[in-house]
Amino acid sequence: MNVTIWNEFRHERQQDKCGEACRKHYPNGIHAYLKEALSAKAPDINFRTASLDEPECGLPDDVINSTDVLLWWGHVAHHEVPDALVQKLRFRILGGMGLIVLHSGHCSKIFGAMMGTSCGLCWREVGEKERVWTVAPGHPIAQGLPESFVVPHTEMYGEPFDIPDDGKVVFMSWYEGGNVFRSGVAFHRDLGKIFYFSPGHETFPIYHDENVQKVILNAIRWATPPAAVNSERRPCPCVKPVEKIYTPNPAM
Question: Which residues lie across from 31 on neighbouring strands?
């Protein structure tokens, strides 16, 4: 299983208070930290990282075509991701590649392309407490998770959340300020599986949390295609009949 962790990798390099706070928790970037933490828990998975400022945004064709599940973290540079790359990723997801969208990736081009909505929400950044409730305990992504767990300090993401109604809500969050949010939602798009998970602000050590890491690993295993991703699949193939057709074609 090949998992690519993509991070725009901008906050961690800023020379300001935000950058200092990011480097305190993720000195080599969120992507590098997740690779190290998840690799230790899942030695059977091959993790690699990619970032926006690498050649081809770190996602050349050979990387895309050999990725089973793609993790996506972005925030301030969504607009810099080329539309051509988004279309390549969309095609791969429809063919079976899994997509895990983290935190502010709700505004990414690829998530919007797969959802077909604005993916907008309301937010507040005061470092309040978040309680994450497991509302679909039978779902594979929820396996091994408690009834609820607390993120001590986070950025609030609140409803309304403009995503399609076909998503399966696995986790719901309540915030100290009173807001609620569908913080973990799973989707199917053609042969691909998509999971959005909101906990994970850049200036808080949320990805250090064991429960958060468990959710992400469960999501990776759930989203992994059962067979090789079909890179040749087309959304609307013309197929031959499997039964003999006796009705004459009036157009012929």
Answer: none
- What does the pLDDT look like over 208-227, one tens digit per residue? 999 999 999 999 999 999 87
CB 105 within 8 A of CB 86: no
Beta strand spans in the chain (E):
2-7, 46-51, 69-73, 98-102, 122-134, 148-158, 168-175, 180-189, 192-197
**DSSP character for 167?**
P
Q: From CA 198, how far away is CA 120, in angstroms rounded?
A: 13
Whole-model pTM over 0.90: yes
Q: Are 71 and 6 contacting, i.e. CB atoms less than 8 angstroms apart?
A: yes
Cis peptide before 160 (omega within 30 of 0): yes
List residues bridging with 101 in a β-sheet. Answer: 72, 196
Cβ-contact 158, 175 below 8 angstroms = yes
Q: Which residues contact 194 (CB under 8 A, 6 or more apart)?
A: 93, 98, 99, 100, 101, 111, 114, 186, 187, 188, 223
Alpha helices in the chain (DSSP H): 17-25, 30-41, 61-65, 83-94, 109-115, 210-223
